[in-house]
Amino acid sequence: MSAPTQPTKTTIVTEALKRFTNGVTPTATDITRAEDYGLEKVKRDIMGVGKAWRPLIRTVYDITKVGVAQYVNPSDFEKNASVGLMSGTHTGALSAVASTSAMTLAADENALQREVEGKYLLITSGTGVDQARQIDDYSATSKALVLTLAFTTLPVITDGYLICDSIKDLIPITNERYEQYEYPGIPGTPLRYADVPDDTLGKLALHPTPNAVFGLRRRYYADLMKIDTSIDLYNTILRRWANVFEQGVLVWKLGEDDDRYETQNAIYQQFLSNLLVTDLDGYQKPAASA
Q1: How far is CA 232 from CA 9, 58, 178, in A?
Q2: Percent of the chain, pLDDT > 70?
Q3: 270-274 — which CB contacts under 8 Å span 24+ positions?
Q4: Domain spans of the chain?
């Protein structure tokens, strides 16, 4: 059985415009305008009714620096879901790289097979920095390993690594507590984090300030308005929420001047309400009135 066709922004807005014109194929100009304005309005509507969308959770890795407490948020960041501190005792530099999923640890690495397999290999410096993958197979004799999933960026020889033994979730605190009571300059192993706003993306602030090199596993809710349209996540969202996007673009078009607007907008608002129930973390459906 063949898989269903993946919807695209063009197929979604085209279908919405056909519904508007009762089946007439829209012009290229109308399609472009609907993509640039109609679809973007639907994204704004979705982000307006909620911020913590489960399908928009992304995971990135970062490396701490000794004495540095604050780290810039990802470019599509909306809200933190969790922050895990990654640590381990086995570190070094890669001695060989065969591919994005096969490489060799330092020649003097003394980790045993059981200390490596199943753990995360975190690249701490160099070309492949800020990547982590689980180790599927390791030879303590040759120091060669195979990852369960390939790195996105190919590391190179001499890139630093850490075999992650532990990922400990940090405790979220308010920015006010971080600034007023937690004395951000005190060094140590980070235990807490706060969201620090600024004029752009905001920052993740750690307390205590790192006194060693650690990894950070950051799981966050992305902003639908900012996610890269070339990544798999965007295609997943278009597929998962296609009905919402299509109805929203139709309502955007009807809003210009059409007596069908009120009825179709009511349907659109119901779609958004359904989305809250199925995909928004922390959402509690209002109790039915007596």
Answers
A1: 14, 11, 36
A2: 97
A3: 271/243, 271/244, 271/247, 272/45, 272/46, 272/49, 272/244
A4: 9-53+224-279, 54-86+168-222, 89-164
Residue 180's pLDDT band (cuts 50, 70, 90) = confident
Alpha carbons 154 and 23: distance in angstroms, whole number:
48
Q: Which CATH number fits domain 89-164: 2.40.10, 3.30.1340, 1.20.1330, 1.10.3470?
A: 2.40.10
Could you give the angle at which helices 242-254 and 261-279 cross, rounded to 10 degrees?
A: 150
- pLDDT tens, position by position, 14-42: 999 999 999 999 999 999 999 999 999 99
Verdict on whether the full-model pTM lies above 0.85: yes
Contact between residue 104 and residue 145 where contact means Cβ atoms under 8 Å apart: yes
Confidence tier at 287 by pLDDT (50, 70, 90): low
CA dist 264 and 267 (Å) reads 5
Q: How many CB atoms lie within 10 A of CB 18?
A: 14
Distance CA 131, CA 215 (A): 10
Distance CA 70, CA 208 (A): 11
